[in-house]
Design brief:
The protein is of the alpha/beta class. Helices cover about 30% and strands about 20% of the residues. It is globular, with a radius of gyration of 19 Å.
């Protein structure tokens, strides 16, 4: 029986609004790809992201256009050539990984030559943009964590960074302006970043303008997010950033994300593993990148009112527990 592709749009309400420099989100809209060969079924989830010109409709259309090729046995490597990086390719690639795992009876970890037992991870949780006082209050609820991520924009980021640091004197800190700063602002904030012991500043400038970072020396390492999608992006980032954020929705799936991971490590970049606001169906494949990362930010499902059964959970010791392998990539189902 030829493999049959189905695509579904699912909406997941958030427990609290998620505020970043680009706006506020109260629900997340994902696309789920399912590939059924008549015996085994594989699934993958992606988030269409307007920043990259994507919508639910466009991602479904791009993925649906591959239905015939998938029915004909299209493989993951062939998919890299057939479809551009992005959410559509991510959903399909992750579904193909899951299907391969179910067919072989082997977990994805084993297919990758990694230990089957997925480690818990010290993942960041995000403090969204709000008043400094409210951000401090939100940060105090995260006192059990080793790593926090602070969303800011260009409106008094110093006050917000200082407020979170005062509330969390020991945690490692990532500051994420989501492309909202200028080089002048980044330069002016260097004393604040030093005083607050910020470990990482994620994508401070718009990706189209980050050439001005060449030669700039920051007290906190700089991480490319919107500027880094696939391995081919790395050469132009070498003199601008020290760390790259690998997200499967940007790379277009686990296959390309692993290629990016290998290339980034070989070229001396530090690794961050990130995600969009998503369910644990999207977090499960990202775990296979995150287990190799210095900075992990896989808190997407923690923003949801409800996740899949067996989804990722934050433990009392501040470590994120991996989703159940029954959800994705666990080989033969018991």
């Amino acid at each position: 029986m030829p493999a049959r592709l189905t695509l579904e749009h699912r909406s997941w309400p958030l427990a609290t609004p998620f505020r970043i420099a680009r706006g506020v989100r109260t629900a997340t809209e994902v696309v789920v790809a399912t590939i059924d060969d008549g015996t085994h079924v594989g699934s993958g989830e992606s988030l269409p992201y307007p920043r990259y010109g994507e919508s639910v409709a466009s991602v479904r259309a791009q993925a649906q256009a591959m239905a015939g090729a998938i029915a004909g046995g299209l493989g993951r490597r062939q998919l890299l050539d057939a479809l551009a990086p992005g959410a559509a390719r991510n959903a399909l690639d992750c579904a193909l990984w899951d299907l391969e795992s179910r067919r072989s009876g082997r977990p994805v970890a084993a297919l990758l030559g990694q230990p089957d037992a997925l480690p818990s991870l010290a993942s960041a949780q995000t403090v969204g943009i709000d008043t400094p006082e409210r951000m401090a209050a939100a940060a105090r609820a995260l006192a059990h964590l080793d790593l926090v991520k602070v969303k800011v924009d260009a409106e008094d980021p110093a006050a917000r960074i200082r407020a979170v640091r005062a509330a969390l004197p020991r945690a490692r800190m990532i500051v994420d302006p989501n492309e909202s700063w200028t080089l002048a602002l980044l330069d002016a904030l260097q004393p604040v970043l030093a005083d607050a012991r910020v470990d990482l500043v994620e994508q401070p400038l718009p990706s189209a303008e980050d050439h001005v970072l060449v030669g700039f020396r920051s007290v906190a390492r700089l991480c490319a997010d919107e500027s880094c999608h696939v391995a081919a992006d790395l050469p132009r980032l070498r003199d601008r950033y020290q760390v790259v954020n690998i997200k499967l929705d940007k790379s277009g799936g686990l296959t390309a994300a692993l290629d990016l991971l290998d290339a980034a490590q070989a070229q001396g970049f530090g690794i961050m593993a990130g995600c969009m606001i998503c369910t644990s169906l999207a977090i499960a494949p990202a775990w296979h990148v995150a287990r190799h990362a210095e900075f992990v930010d896989l808190d997407g499902p923690l923003w949801l009112c409800e996740d899949h059964p067996g989804g990722a959970t934050m433990r009392e010791d501040g470590r994120l527990q991996a989703p159940s392998t029954r959800l994705w990539g666990g080989g033969a189902l018991a």
